[in-house]
Design a protein that fits this description.
mainly alpha; Fumarase C, Chain B, domain 1; Fumarase C, Chain A, domain 2; three-stranded antiparallel beta sheet; two-stranded parallel sheet; 19 helices; histidine ammonia-lyase activity; Histidine ammonia-lyase; L-Aspartase-like; histidine metabolism
Length: 522
């Protein structure tokens, strides 16, 4: 895929396409096959609009108001009115990348030729994306059934030259001004077009795809920090042997164990658990604590959950979600494909996995800071314990984040609430599941960053004992120090160090530093 251009055909898109458009500067083009499919399905809608029989979305009202037949002279107003009335979001504006993903995925469905809109409408969506115009979409308004109605309505409002949008410079201005500046004519909606622009799971799906990309990086990051903690605690890497994981054949578990084993290759710190190297134990350890020994099992379960989520996302990225839909044989049929349950469930699954991964990382950090369990490390990894507090309160911050992630793990998709005069009497809450997952991903990034700060400091302190970490740990230590995170020593203003570590993890530089020694990690 050319990262600077994504060509939309009729068969769907990839997660990489979504990320390229949402987060990057990739331009969007409509393939000739998509334009032909759009024109063909529009002919079907025009033919139905000319008939006296009512057709939902073409010549009727919507939802509980679908009982009214709408005369031809009112149908344009009907389509514009559904956009205006449904653009009822409240709260802060959501992130630019979310809105771009939302619009791109709606355009993906339009390009499938199953919605019946004119090619002009699809071209206008592409033009708005390519111009860097981002409609203002609010946090609240979607129940995740009949699609992400309010968020998509705010996007459609901009296509009509109404409402507000953010320009390429980040300033929020009237949509009409921004369209005019970029030579884009506002769309005058015709039969079915307003409904087709609103009726999809595009917001929750876009957020799922981006969260999956972030979580893939964080799972690898967690394997790296777990390995560094194991080194710092003079643990054993024997529990990472492939034959042990082959007898419990979860693929994610094997991948995480392999990552850790490769990060620990060549380490002089591992294997001292049975020798009492640190001189602090009444008897040698037989085995490491669960938070260290079971790291591959927990992170691996997260990997397998992510694999399932990507399977669901892939199916949804190949789907045409609209109601009614234009079928290949020319029929226009009502359906329930807009229900967000498949996406909502996996968004909630991922929030659970993120919370548990954060929980085990925090337990490892706490072990590094507790002199009774750290096997010879100074209390709180402080320079002069008692005068210095070291990383004591960094763990408080981490614990607060973990507690928040546990609250965010409560499923949104189990909390349906009826709407539209009981016509829409069961909804997915998929948008809400996606919003809380984004918060959880941010929290998990910070939790892993705190473990990195602690583990890096602890590994360096082991140097005073004449023990040398492995090449991967040395590469990470060099990179994290260059990023502005201080090593052992006296107390200092800690928040900037934690912020620098967070950015180091978020940007992927932690993974890159480890891979400089290990080669590509899973």
């Amino acid at each position: 895929m050319d990262m600077q251009k994504v060509v939309l055909g009729t068969s769907g898109v990839t997660p990489e396409d979504v990320v390229a458009v949402a987060r990057g500067a990739a331009r969007v083009e409509l393939a000739p096959e998509a334009l032909a499919a759009l024109a063909a399905s529009r002919e079907v809608v025009d033919a139905l609009a000319a008939k006296p029989e009512p057709v939902y979305g073409v010549s009727t009202g919507f939802g509980a108001l679908a009982v009214r037949h709408i005369s031809p002279q009112l149908r344009g107003r009907l389509q514009s009115n559904i956009v205006r009335s449904h653009a009822a979001g409240m709260g802060p504006a959501v992130e630019r990348e979310v809105v771009r993903a939302l619009m791109f995925l709606r355009l993906k469905t339009l390009a499938s030729g199953r919605t019946g809109v004119r090619p002009l409408v699809a071209r206008t969506v592409a033009a708005v994306l390519n111009a860097g115009i981002t409609p203002v979409v609010h946090e609240y308004g979607s129940l995740g059934c009949s699609g992400d109605l309010a968020p998509l309505s705010h996007c459609a409002l901009t296509l009509m030259g109404e409402g507000e949008a953010e320009g390429p410079d980040g300033a929020v201005r009237p949509s009409a001004e921004l369209l005019a500046e970029h030579g884009i004519e506002p769309v005058e909606l015709r039969e079915k077009e307003g409904l087709a622009l609103l009726n999809g799971t595009d917001g929750m799906l876009g957020m799922l795809v981006m969260a999956a990309a972030d979580l893939a990086r964080l799972l690898t990051s967690a394997d790296i920090t777990a390995a560094l903690t194991l080194e710092a605690l003079l643990g054993t890497d024997r529990v990472l042997a492939p034959e042990l994981h082959a007898i419990r054949p979860h693929p994610g578990q094997a991948a995480s164990a392999d990552n850790m084993l490769r990060v620990l290759a060549g380490s002089g710190l591992t294997g001292h658990h049975q020798t009492g190297h640190d001189g602090q134990e009444a008897a040698p350890r037989v085995q490491d604590a669960y938070s260290v020994r079971c790291a591959p099992q927990v992170a691996g379960a997260g990997r397998d959950t992510l694999a399932h989520a990507l399977l669901v996302a892939g199916r949804e990225l190949a789907a045409s979600v609209d109601n009614p839909v234009v079928l290949p044989d020319g029929r226009v049929e009502s359906n329930g494909n807009f229900h967000g349950a498949p996406v909502g469930y996996v968004l909630d699954f991922l929030a659970i996995a993120a919370a548990d991964l954060a929980s085990i990382a925090e337990r490892r950090t706490d072990r590094l800071l507790d002199k009774n369990r750290s096997h010879g490390l100074p209390p709180f990894l402080a320079g002069d314990p008692g005068v210095d507090s070291g990383l004591m309160i960094a763990q408080y911050t981490q614990a607060a984040l973990v507690a928040e992630l546990k609250r965010l793990a409560v499923p949104a998709s189990a909390d349906s609430i009826p709407s539209s005069a009981m016509q829409e009497d069961h909804v997915s809450m998929g948008w809400s599941a996606a919003r809380k997952l984004r918060t959880a991903v941010d929290g998990l990034t910070r939790v892993i960053a705190v473990e990195l700060v602690a583990a890096a400091r602890a590994v360096e302190l082991r140097g005073d004992e004449g023990l040398t970490p492995g090449p991967a740990a040395r590469s990470v230590l060099s990179a994290v120090r260059a990023a502005g995170v201080a090593g052992p020593g006296g107390d200092r203003f800690l928040a900037p160090d934690l912020a620098a570590a967070e950015e180091f993890v978020r940007s992927g530089r932690l993974v890159a530093a480890a891979e400089a020694a290990t080669g590509p990690l899973a």
